[in-house]
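User: I'm writing a short report section on ligand binding and want a predicted complex to refer to. Could you take this sequence and protoporphyrin IX containing FE and write out the structure as tokens? A short remark afterwards would be nice.
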Amino acid sequence: MRKAFAGVAALLMVVVVIQFFLAGSGAFDNGPVDEAFKPHRSLGYLTVILAIVLTLAAAVARMPGRIIGLAGLVAGLTLLQPVIAVVAKGFGDEGTTTTAGQIVFGLHAVNGLVIMAVLRNVLMASRQQAAPAHSARTAS
Ligand code: HEM
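Assistant: Sure. The structure tokens for the complex follow:
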């Protein structure tokens, strides 16, 4: 089960990197924002689900409490991504953006970096836990 947990953590890291890629390619799109960011938005909600699965997998695999907590933090931070987007849009009117909304939405990008940093810790710890007992002991 610990190997499965390490697998989900690795998959989530790949998905987060793709999210950054899709945000960048969406920003270069000439079409309407709704269309340009469609793939990023869809994968964004899948990211949230995957992060919740990661947390459940950590609990089922009986990982140390710190790792379960970090996985839960990743899930909470990914859940924050659409919330930030909704709050930022709330500052505008009928699709227009405002300076306040732009500042709030900037947090969406910064939060993406924080998600990656926390997830990196989870991934490293998951690999250590999935290693055979001998190397796990010597690594800690
Ligand atoms: C872990 C990384 C990320 C996740 C999980 C994520 C998730 C999401 C989600 C769920 C949405 C849809 C929100 C909605 O329905 O209104 C969204 C929209 C968006 N995200 Fe991200 N995001 C991430 C990183 C980034 C980064 C790094 C950028 C840019 C630097 C970015 C830019 C955007 C933009 C421009 C939108 C479209 C907002 C709109 O609909 O007008 N995202 N993201």
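A remark for your report: The chain has a mean pLDDT of 92. Residues 16, 19-20, 23, 33, 37, 40-41, 44-45, 47, 78, 81-82, 85-86, 108-109, 112, 115 surround protoporphyrin IX containing FE (CB under 6 Å).
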